[in-house]
Amino acid sequence: MSFLDYFKKDKKEDLDQGLDQTKKSFFSKITKAIAGKSSIDVSILDDIEEALITSDVSLQTTVKIIDRLETRIKEEKYFGEEELYKVLEDEIARLMYENSTDDIQDFVPSSVEKPYVIMVVGVNGVGKTTTIGKLAYQYKQAGKKVLLGAGDTFRAAAVNQLKIWAERSDLPIVDKGQDADPSSVAFDTLQSAKAKGSDIVLFDTAGRLHTKAGLMQELTKIKTTMSKVIPNAPHEILLVLDASTGQNALNQAKEFTAATQVNAIALTKIDGTAKGGIAISISDLLKVPIKYIGVGEKIEQLQLFNKKAFIQSLFTK
Questions:
Q1: What is the C-alpha separation between 281 and 286, in angstroms, rounded?
Q2: Of 76-85, 180-189, 291-300, which gets the smallest average pLDDT?
Q3: Banded pLDDT at 8 (limits 50, 70, 90)
Q4: If you average pLDDT over residues 78-91, what whole number do you get?
Q5: Residues near 248 by beta carbon (within 8 Å), at least 6 away in sequence
Q6: Which pLDDT band, with edges at 50, 70 and 90, does 213 fall under?
Q7: Interaxial angle between packed helices 9-18 and 20-34, expressed in degrees from 0 to 180 and rounded to the nearest 10
Q8: Scanning 10, 15, 118, 151, which has its CA 20 to 30 A from the CA of 309?
Q9: Under a CB-based contact definition with an 8 Å cutoff, are residues 146 and 184 in contact?
């Protein structure tokens, strides 16, 4: 199923609704910045800069946008409110596309490796286990054999939550209970995946603080164990970030990408926040693609992230 098939009307409506709080906040601040202006010139750039930063676009990314706006205003002289929105949309789109990461076209990995192993990382409370459950549902809908691994053994609640997701989608799970060695769970999960002929492995890890070096080292141990069972595993390290934490999510992303070779991001809870602008900064500043975006609580409301659809939705009043 291609992205064009997937991103039908109901998906667009989910995205529009998910970005509603961000759009209301973003446009109200921009509108306030240009209120009463008969034409747009460089004198209002400070107000636009403030509007971007308070919409959780990072300072570094905001400076890039403002510099580009200033150039456009000087080149094109004066223009009105609608032209400003269009120029702003164009420059944000350019930034998001310049990070050399491509949007994925399908939930199902294109890799020929089987099983395709995804290790899911992130701090507590970002929606990590829920994201695993929603991804597992998408893969099963695509006809793939999915195996879950309960590697977050520090909290009984995390293991139980993943078991609930496994039962909900009628999927097998490797579970050794609370306090089990996560690397041992990883070993057993991948051995089971090979024996069962699984297509996809989704392995949960403890929600750890990105500032704790010892906990980060444990992720390395899990990766090493996985590679001993299946060469090149994990094939994907998916970092889950909570959009509602704004700049803290960006800081987490920088720490995790430096420590664990993250190669994919899922941005959750964007429907419950006005801080959706953080997706712009993540796309601009990190060379890691946002692959998924959570726009609601329903199981099918984890969407493929598409820059064009995101920008169009953001600038639809």
A1: 8
A2: 76-85
A3: low
A4: 81
A5: none
A6: low
A7: 60
A8: 118
A9: no
Residue 118: strand pairing partners: 202, 236
Q: Are residues 83 and 142 in the same domain?
A: no
283 and 138, same domain (yes or no): yes
Q: Are residues 223 and 286 in the same domain?
A: yes
**CA 55, CA 229: separation in Å to the nearest integer?**
45
Task: Report the CATH number that the domain containing residue 23 is assigned in CATH.
Answer: 1.20.120.140
Q: Rounded to an integer, what distance in angstroms lies between the CA atom of residue 86 and that of residue 166?
A: 45
Max Cα–Cα distance, the chain, nearest Å: 70
**Tokens (6 digits) for 11:** 């998906």
- What pLDDT score does 75 carry? 83
pLDDT of residue 5: 46
DSSP per residue, the chain? --HHHHS-HHHHHHHHHHTHHHHHHHHHHHHHHHTT-SSB-GGGHHHHHHHHHTTT--HHHHHHHHHHHHHHHHHH--B-HHHHHHHHHHHHHHHHHTT--PPPS-SS-----SSEEEEEE--TTSSHHHHHHHHHHHHHHTT--EEEEEE-TT-HHHHHHHHHHHHHTT--EE---TT--HHHHHHHHHHHHHHHT-SEEEEEE----TT-HHHHHHHHHHHHHHHHHSTT--SEEEEEEEGGGTHHHHHHHHHHHHHH---EEEEE-GGG-S-TTHHHHHHHH-SS-EEEEE-SSSTT-EEE--HHHHHHHHT--
For residue 254, give its domain range: 116-306
